[in-house]
Amino acid sequence: MNNVNPLPQLAAAPAVQLAPSTPQFEPAAREPVSHGYRIEGKELVIDHQAEDIRHVLQGQCAIQGAIEILAGGLYFAGSLPKGTINIPNGTLILAEGAEISAEISVKRLFNLGAIQASTVTAADLLVNWGRIDAKEVATVSLRNGGTLVAEHIRYGDMDSSGVLQGNLARTS
Predict the structure, then answer these.
(1) 86-112: pLDDT as tens digits
(2) End-to-end CA separation in angstroms for the chain
(3) Cα 28 to Cα 30: distance, rounded to the nearest angstrom
(4) Which residue, 115, 121, 118, 116, is CA-closest to 138?
(5) pTM for this one?
(6) What are phi and psi of 35, to 5 degrees?
(7) What is the pLDDT of residues 118-160, one digit of tens each?
(8) Residues 164, 141: Cα–Cα separation, whole Å
(9) Which of these, 123, 133, 131, lies nearest to 92 by C-alpha position?
């Protein structure tokens, strides 16, 4: 015979108030398009309209001398073996495959090509996804996903996932 006592009857638990659920996680917003560019994965996407690109020099063009643009920006996909590019109030976009051996002074620079220069100055923003070899590079905001080699690199703020080589100096 079995001498096992049956389990006592369990009483119902009192009702418990449920805490409200936490809000769903929302990833941080991407950089606003008003900046004229965004980074998707490892790709640089530039909004030409937001950058006010009004002038285009396509591939297979070779220019020597000075380029000065007083209104709007320039998309450049050719070759400039020597000279200067001056866009004090606008943007210069160097396409992949573009080759520049000129002094550059612009408000905003997006580089996907190759630059060899003594000085590269981007008063507001320099986004490098190509290669820059220079004696001096100066900008307020530097975003580097390419290769930047310069004796002196002056910047206000920087975000780099690429290669930087030279004397870095943060300016206020």
Answers:
(1) 999 999 999 999 999 999 999 999 999
(2) 91
(3) 6
(4) 121
(5) 0.78
(6) -75, -15
(7) 999 999 999 999 999 999 999 999 999 999 999 999 999 999 9
(8) 15
(9) 123
**Distances in whole angstroms, Cα of residue 69 to Cα of each of 52, 57, 77, 86, 157:** 12, 13, 16, 7, 27
Q: Which residues contact 110 (CB under 8 A, 6 or more apart)?
A: 37, 44, 46, 51, 91, 92, 93, 94, 127, 129
Q: What is the DSSP letter of 102?
A: S
For residues 77 and 92, what is the distance between their CA atoms, to the nearest angstrom?
11
Q: Which of 85, 100, 89 is nearest to 133 (CA)?
A: 100
Q: Is the distance from CB of 77 to CB of 98 less than 8 angstroms?
A: yes
Q: How far apart are CA 63 and CA 55, in angstroms?
A: 15
Lookup: tokens for 157: 């703020």
H/E element, 116: strand 114-128
Question: Distance of CA 134 to CAs 35, 89, 166, Å?
Answer: 26, 22, 10
